[in-house]
Amino acid sequence: MSKKITTFAIAGATLAALSVSSVPAYSAEVTLRWQTFVPPVANPSKFYKPWAKKVEKDSGGRLKIQQFWAMQLGGKAPQLLDQIKDGVIDMGWTLPGFTPGRMPRVEPFELPFVHRDPVSTTLALQDYQDKWLGPDLKNYKPLLLHVHAGFLFQTKKPIHKASDIKGMKLRAASRGGVWLLDALGATGIGMPLPRIPPALSKGVIDGVTLPYEIAPAVKTQDLVSHFTDLAGPQPRLGTNVFTFLMNRTSWDKLPADLKRVLDKNSGRAVAKQAGELWAQIEEPGRKVVASKKKNKFFTLPADEVAKIRKAAAGVEGKWIGEMKKIGADGAGMLKDAKALIAKYSK
Predict the structure, then answer these.
(1) Whole-prediction pTM value?
(2) DSSP secondary structure string, 203-222?
(3) Residue 111 main-chain phi, psi, to 5 deg
(4) Taking the mean position of all CA atoms in its chain, how far away is CA 232?
(5) Which of 60, 78, 155, 325 has an alpha carbon within 20 to 30 A of 221's alpha carbon?
(6) Domain segments of the chain: what residues?
Protein backbone atom coordinates (compact mmCIF):
# COMPACT_ATOMS: atom_id res chain seq x y z
CA MET A 1 0.00 0.00 0.00
CA SER A 2 1.37 3.43 -0.94
CA LYS A 3 0.40 4.90 2.43
CA LYS A 4 2.28 2.32 4.44
CA ILE A 5 4.20 4.11 7.15
CA THR A 6 6.18 1.32 8.81
CA THR A 7 9.69 2.49 9.54
CA PHE A 8 12.53 0.02 9.45
CA ALA A 9 15.41 2.43 9.95
CA ILE A 10 18.85 0.92 9.51
CA ALA A 11 21.90 3.06 10.08
CA GLY A 12 23.95 3.78 6.96
CA ALA A 13 27.09 2.25 8.35
CA THR A 14 25.24 -0.92 9.16
CA LEU A 15 23.81 -1.06 5.64
CA ALA A 16 27.28 -0.80 4.18
CA ALA A 17 28.53 -3.54 6.46
CA LEU A 18 25.63 -5.79 5.54
CA SER A 19 26.47 -5.47 1.86
CA VAL A 20 30.02 -6.75 2.26
CA SER A 21 30.13 -8.87 5.39
CA SER A 22 28.15 -11.16 7.63
CA VAL A 23 26.82 -8.55 10.07
CA PRO A 24 23.62 -10.20 11.36
CA ALA A 25 20.15 -8.85 10.55
CA TYR A 26 19.38 -8.23 14.22
CA SER A 27 21.62 -5.14 14.17
CA ALA A 28 18.66 -3.32 12.57
CA GLU A 29 16.92 -0.59 14.54
CA VAL A 30 13.15 -0.77 14.09
CA THR A 31 10.46 1.79 14.84
CA LEU A 32 6.88 0.53 14.92
CA ARG A 33 3.94 2.91 14.79
CA TRP A 34 1.11 2.14 17.22
CA GLN A 35 -2.27 3.89 17.23
CA THR A 36 -5.46 3.85 19.24
CA PHE A 37 -8.65 5.87 19.61
CA VAL A 38 -8.44 6.90 23.28
CA PRO A 39 -6.56 10.01 24.45
CA PRO A 40 -3.26 9.60 26.31
CA VAL A 41 -4.94 10.57 29.60
CA ALA A 42 -7.29 7.57 29.41
CA ASN A 43 -6.58 4.56 31.60
CA PRO A 44 -5.29 2.25 28.82
CA SER A 45 -2.17 4.43 28.82
CA LYS A 46 -1.35 2.98 32.25
CA PHE A 47 -0.75 -0.34 30.54
CA TYR A 48 0.47 0.58 27.06
CA LYS A 49 2.92 3.38 27.90
CA PRO A 50 4.91 1.17 30.33
CA TRP A 51 4.55 -1.71 27.88
CA ALA A 52 6.24 0.30 25.11
CA LYS A 53 9.06 1.36 27.44
CA LYS A 54 9.66 -2.22 28.56
CA VAL A 55 9.81 -3.48 24.97
CA GLU A 56 12.36 -0.81 24.14
CA LYS A 57 14.41 -1.69 27.22
CA ASP A 58 14.26 -5.44 26.58
CA SER A 59 15.46 -4.89 23.03
CA GLY A 60 18.39 -2.79 24.13
CA GLY A 61 16.84 0.23 22.44
CA ARG A 62 16.78 -1.36 19.00
CA LEU A 63 12.98 -1.78 18.93
CA LYS A 64 11.06 1.46 19.44
CA ILE A 65 7.29 1.82 19.75
CA GLN A 66 6.04 5.20 18.56
CA GLN A 67 2.60 5.75 20.10
CA PHE A 68 -0.18 7.84 18.59
CA TRP A 69 -3.25 8.48 20.74
CA ALA A 70 -6.73 9.71 19.81
CA MET A 71 -6.23 8.71 16.15
CA GLN A 72 -3.42 11.24 15.63
CA LEU A 73 -2.39 9.49 12.40
CA GLY A 74 -5.88 9.92 10.97
CA GLY A 75 -8.98 7.82 10.53
CA LYS A 76 -11.74 6.90 12.94
CA ALA A 77 -11.94 4.25 15.65
CA PRO A 78 -13.89 1.68 13.54
CA GLN A 79 -11.13 1.85 10.91
CA LEU A 80 -8.37 0.63 13.21
CA LEU A 81 -8.72 -3.06 12.34
CA ASP A 82 -8.26 -2.21 8.66
CA GLN A 83 -5.42 0.20 9.37
CA ILE A 84 -3.53 -2.61 11.11
CA LYS A 85 -4.41 -5.26 8.52
CA ASP A 86 -3.50 -3.04 5.57
CA GLY A 87 -0.24 -1.82 7.08
CA VAL A 88 -1.25 1.81 7.45
CA ILE A 89 0.01 1.35 11.02
CA ASP A 90 2.20 -1.40 12.43
CA MET A 91 0.11 -2.12 15.51
CA GLY A 92 -2.93 -0.86 17.33
CA TRP A 93 -5.35 -1.31 20.21
CA THR A 94 -9.08 -1.38 19.53
CA LEU A 95 -12.41 -3.10 20.08
CA PRO A 96 -13.69 -5.51 17.42
CA GLY A 97 -17.15 -4.51 18.62
CA PHE A 98 -16.78 -1.20 16.78
CA THR A 99 -17.17 -3.19 13.54
CA PRO A 100 -19.94 -5.69 14.41
CA GLY A 101 -19.44 -9.16 13.00
CA ARG A 102 -15.84 -8.48 11.95
CA MET A 103 -14.42 -10.80 14.62
CA PRO A 104 -17.52 -12.74 15.63
CA ARG A 105 -15.68 -15.57 17.39
CA VAL A 106 -14.57 -13.28 20.24
CA GLU A 107 -18.17 -12.36 21.00
CA PRO A 108 -19.18 -15.09 23.46
CA PHE A 109 -17.14 -13.22 26.09
CA GLU A 110 -19.29 -10.14 25.43
CA LEU A 111 -22.65 -11.86 25.86
CA PRO A 112 -24.72 -11.03 28.97
CA PHE A 113 -23.55 -12.54 32.25
CA VAL A 114 -20.73 -14.63 30.76
CA HIS A 115 -18.02 -12.39 32.22
CA ARG A 116 -17.11 -12.49 35.92
CA ASP A 117 -13.96 -10.42 36.43
CA PRO A 118 -11.19 -9.04 34.18
CA VAL A 119 -8.50 -11.45 35.36
CA SER A 120 -10.40 -14.71 34.80
CA THR A 121 -11.91 -13.53 31.51
CA THR A 122 -8.55 -12.30 30.16
CA LEU A 123 -6.81 -15.55 31.13
CA ALA A 124 -9.67 -17.53 29.57
CA LEU A 125 -9.25 -15.59 26.33
CA GLN A 126 -5.66 -16.82 25.97
CA ASP A 127 -6.74 -20.48 25.96
CA TYR A 128 -9.80 -19.75 23.85
CA GLN A 129 -7.74 -17.87 21.26
CA ASP A 130 -5.60 -20.91 20.50
CA LYS A 131 -8.62 -23.08 19.80
CA TRP A 132 -11.16 -20.80 18.16
CA LEU A 133 -9.80 -17.50 16.88
CA GLY A 134 -7.64 -18.61 13.95
CA PRO A 135 -10.14 -17.43 11.29
CA ASP A 136 -10.68 -14.05 12.96
CA LEU A 137 -6.99 -13.34 13.56
CA LYS A 138 -5.48 -14.79 10.39
CA ASN A 139 -4.59 -11.35 9.00
CA TYR A 140 -2.84 -10.22 12.18
CA LYS A 141 -0.16 -11.06 14.67
CA PRO A 142 -2.15 -10.97 17.93
CA LEU A 143 -0.21 -9.53 20.86
CA LEU A 144 -2.94 -9.50 23.49
CA LEU A 145 -6.67 -9.97 23.89
CA HIS A 146 -8.15 -8.75 27.17
CA VAL A 147 -11.26 -7.19 28.74
CA HIS A 148 -12.27 -4.43 31.14
CA ALA A 149 -13.94 -4.89 34.52
CA GLY A 150 -17.42 -4.92 33.02
CA PHE A 151 -20.06 -2.38 32.09
CA LEU A 152 -22.89 -0.93 34.12
CA PHE A 153 -25.69 1.50 33.34
CA GLN A 154 -24.65 5.17 33.32
CA THR A 155 -27.80 7.14 32.55
CA LYS A 156 -29.51 10.51 32.78
CA LYS A 157 -32.56 9.00 34.48
CA PRO A 158 -32.62 6.56 37.41
CA ILE A 159 -32.88 2.80 36.91
CA HIS A 160 -34.38 1.28 40.06
CA LYS A 161 -36.13 -1.62 38.37
CA ALA A 162 -35.80 -3.47 35.08
CA SER A 163 -38.84 -1.75 33.57
CA ASP A 164 -37.13 1.66 33.96
CA ILE A 165 -34.81 0.68 31.10
CA LYS A 166 -37.67 0.51 28.60
CA GLY A 167 -37.76 3.35 26.12
CA MET A 168 -34.25 4.60 26.84
CA LYS A 169 -31.71 5.13 24.05
CA LEU A 170 -28.50 3.58 25.33
CA ARG A 171 -25.05 3.13 23.83
CA ALA A 172 -23.23 -0.19 23.75
CA ALA A 173 -19.77 -1.12 22.42
CA SER A 174 -20.68 -4.42 20.73
CA ARG A 175 -23.59 -6.03 18.95
CA GLY A 176 -24.10 -8.38 21.92
CA GLY A 177 -24.50 -5.29 24.10
CA VAL A 178 -26.95 -3.77 21.62
CA TRP A 179 -28.98 -6.99 21.56
CA LEU A 180 -29.10 -7.01 25.36
CA LEU A 181 -30.42 -3.45 25.50
CA ASP A 182 -33.01 -4.22 22.82
CA ALA A 183 -34.11 -7.27 24.81
CA LEU A 184 -34.63 -5.02 27.83
CA GLY A 185 -36.93 -2.71 25.88
CA ALA A 186 -34.37 0.02 25.27
CA THR A 187 -33.04 1.16 21.92
CA GLY A 188 -29.50 -0.16 21.75
CA ILE A 189 -27.11 2.01 19.74
CA GLY A 190 -23.64 0.84 18.74
CA MET A 191 -21.23 3.73 19.03
CA PRO A 192 -17.44 4.18 19.29
CA LEU A 193 -16.16 5.85 22.45
CA PRO A 194 -15.20 9.25 20.95
CA ARG A 195 -18.80 9.89 19.85
CA ILE A 196 -20.23 9.48 23.36
CA PRO A 197 -19.77 13.04 24.76
CA PRO A 198 -21.53 14.85 21.89
CA ALA A 199 -24.21 12.17 21.70
CA LEU A 200 -25.01 12.63 25.39
CA SER A 201 -24.81 16.42 25.18
CA LYS A 202 -27.19 16.60 22.21
CA GLY A 203 -29.66 14.03 23.59
CA VAL A 204 -28.96 11.47 20.89
CA ILE A 205 -28.60 8.92 23.69
CA ASP A 206 -29.92 8.81 27.26
CA GLY A 207 -26.98 6.93 28.66
CA VAL A 208 -24.28 4.36 28.10
CA THR A 209 -23.09 0.96 29.24
CA LEU A 210 -19.48 1.45 30.36
CA PRO A 211 -17.12 0.60 33.21
CA TYR A 212 -16.23 3.33 35.69
CA GLU A 213 -12.60 3.48 34.61
CA ILE A 214 -13.33 5.08 31.25
CA ALA A 215 -15.93 7.54 32.58
CA PRO A 216 -13.48 10.44 33.07
CA ALA A 217 -12.25 10.10 29.46
CA VAL A 218 -15.77 10.63 28.08
CA LYS A 219 -17.06 12.90 30.87
CA THR A 220 -19.99 10.75 31.93
CA GLN A 221 -19.44 12.02 35.47
CA ASP A 222 -20.65 15.37 34.10
CA LEU A 223 -23.08 14.27 31.38
CA VAL A 224 -25.20 11.70 33.29
CA SER A 225 -26.19 11.39 36.93
CA HIS A 226 -27.26 7.81 37.66
CA PHE A 227 -24.93 4.79 37.91
CA THR A 228 -26.52 1.38 38.30
CA ASP A 229 -24.94 -2.03 38.81
CA LEU A 230 -26.41 -5.38 39.81
CA ALA A 231 -26.82 -7.34 43.03
CA GLY A 232 -25.30 -10.81 43.14
CA PRO A 233 -22.04 -12.52 42.16
CA GLN A 234 -21.97 -10.83 38.72
CA PRO A 235 -22.46 -7.12 39.40
CA ARG A 236 -21.85 -6.14 35.79
CA LEU A 237 -23.99 -6.84 32.72
CA GLY A 238 -21.03 -7.99 30.64
CA THR A 239 -17.70 -6.85 29.26
CA ASN A 240 -15.99 -5.98 25.98
CA VAL A 241 -13.00 -7.60 24.31
CA PHE A 242 -10.01 -5.43 23.43
CA THR A 243 -7.52 -6.52 20.80
CA PHE A 244 -3.87 -5.47 20.60
CA LEU A 245 -2.84 -6.53 17.10
CA MET A 246 0.13 -6.20 14.77
CA ASN A 247 0.35 -6.06 11.01
CA ARG A 248 1.51 -9.43 9.66
CA THR A 249 4.07 -7.98 7.25
CA SER A 250 5.55 -5.76 9.96
CA TRP A 251 5.89 -8.85 12.14
CA ASP A 252 7.41 -10.97 9.39
CA LYS A 253 10.08 -8.33 8.69
CA LEU A 254 11.34 -8.32 12.26
CA PRO A 255 14.56 -10.23 12.98
CA ALA A 256 14.10 -13.32 15.13
CA ASP A 257 15.51 -11.82 18.33
CA LEU A 258 13.14 -8.83 18.18
CA LYS A 259 10.22 -11.18 17.60
CA ARG A 260 11.29 -12.92 20.82
CA VAL A 261 11.22 -9.57 22.64
CA LEU A 262 7.63 -8.99 21.56
CA ASP A 263 6.64 -12.56 22.37
CA LYS A 264 8.12 -12.10 25.84
CA ASN A 265 5.83 -9.09 26.31
CA SER A 266 2.60 -10.37 24.81
CA GLY A 267 -0.14 -12.99 25.17
CA ARG A 268 0.04 -15.20 28.24
CA ALA A 269 3.15 -13.40 29.47
CA VAL A 270 1.19 -10.19 30.18
CA ALA A 271 -2.44 -11.38 30.34
CA LYS A 272 -2.69 -11.57 34.13
CA GLN A 273 -1.01 -8.20 34.48
CA ALA A 274 -3.53 -6.65 32.07
CA GLY A 275 -6.49 -8.22 33.85
CA GLU A 276 -5.26 -7.04 37.25
CA LEU A 277 -4.69 -3.50 36.00
CA TRP A 278 -8.19 -3.23 34.53
CA ALA A 279 -9.57 -4.45 37.85
CA GLN A 280 -7.54 -1.89 39.80
CA ILE A 281 -8.41 1.14 37.69
CA GLU A 282 -12.14 0.79 38.33
CA GLU A 283 -12.00 2.36 41.79
CA PRO A 284 -10.20 5.58 40.76
CA GLY A 285 -12.78 5.97 37.99
CA ARG A 286 -15.61 5.50 40.45
CA LYS A 287 -14.08 8.11 42.74
CA VAL A 288 -14.10 10.65 39.92
CA VAL A 289 -17.79 9.92 39.33
CA ALA A 290 -18.54 10.12 43.07
CA SER A 291 -16.75 13.47 43.34
CA LYS A 292 -19.73 15.08 41.61
CA LYS A 293 -22.42 15.62 44.24
CA LYS A 294 -25.24 15.32 41.70
CA ASN A 295 -24.35 11.70 40.88
CA LYS A 296 -26.31 8.88 42.46
CA PHE A 297 -25.45 5.18 42.77
CA PHE A 298 -27.89 2.30 42.88
CA THR A 299 -27.64 -1.48 42.92
CA LEU A 300 -30.53 -3.31 41.32
CA PRO A 301 -31.91 -5.89 43.79
CA ALA A 302 -31.82 -9.60 43.05
CA ASP A 303 -35.45 -9.86 41.93
CA GLU A 304 -34.91 -7.12 39.34
CA VAL A 305 -31.64 -8.70 38.21
CA ALA A 306 -33.57 -11.93 37.63
CA LYS A 307 -35.87 -10.05 35.26
CA ILE A 308 -32.88 -8.76 33.31
CA ARG A 309 -31.42 -12.26 33.11
CA LYS A 310 -34.73 -13.60 31.81
CA ALA A 311 -34.99 -10.89 29.15
CA ALA A 312 -31.36 -11.43 28.14
CA ALA A 313 -31.66 -15.20 27.81
CA GLY A 314 -32.49 -15.01 24.13
CA VAL A 315 -29.30 -13.08 23.30
CA GLU A 316 -27.17 -16.23 23.48
CA GLY A 317 -29.50 -18.02 21.08
CA LYS A 318 -29.43 -15.09 18.70
CA TRP A 319 -25.63 -15.09 18.65
CA ILE A 320 -25.48 -18.87 18.12
CA GLY A 321 -27.83 -18.38 15.16
CA GLU A 322 -25.48 -15.77 13.72
CA MET A 323 -22.60 -18.22 14.04
CA LYS A 324 -24.54 -20.86 12.12
CA LYS A 325 -24.74 -18.44 9.20
CA ILE A 326 -20.94 -18.46 8.90
CA GLY A 327 -20.56 -22.17 9.59
CA ALA A 328 -19.15 -21.68 13.09
CA ASP A 329 -19.96 -23.73 16.20
CA GLY A 330 -21.44 -21.00 18.36
CA ALA A 331 -22.69 -23.38 21.03
CA GLY A 332 -19.23 -24.93 21.34
CA MET A 333 -17.50 -21.57 21.54
CA LEU A 334 -19.90 -20.29 24.19
CA LYS A 335 -19.55 -23.48 26.23
CA ASP A 336 -15.77 -23.22 26.14
CA ALA A 337 -15.79 -19.52 27.04
CA LYS A 338 -17.92 -20.16 30.13
CA ALA A 339 -15.86 -23.22 31.16
CA LEU A 340 -12.56 -21.37 30.83
CA ILE A 341 -13.80 -18.39 32.84
CA ALA A 342 -15.01 -20.80 35.53
CA LYS A 343 -11.58 -22.49 35.49
CA TYR A 344 -9.70 -19.25 36.07
CA SER A 345 -12.22 -17.92 38.60
CA LYS A 346 -11.32 -20.64 41.11
Answers:
(1) 0.91
(2) TS-SEEEE-STTHHHHTHHH
(3) -75, 155
(4) 25
(5) 78
(6) 93-346
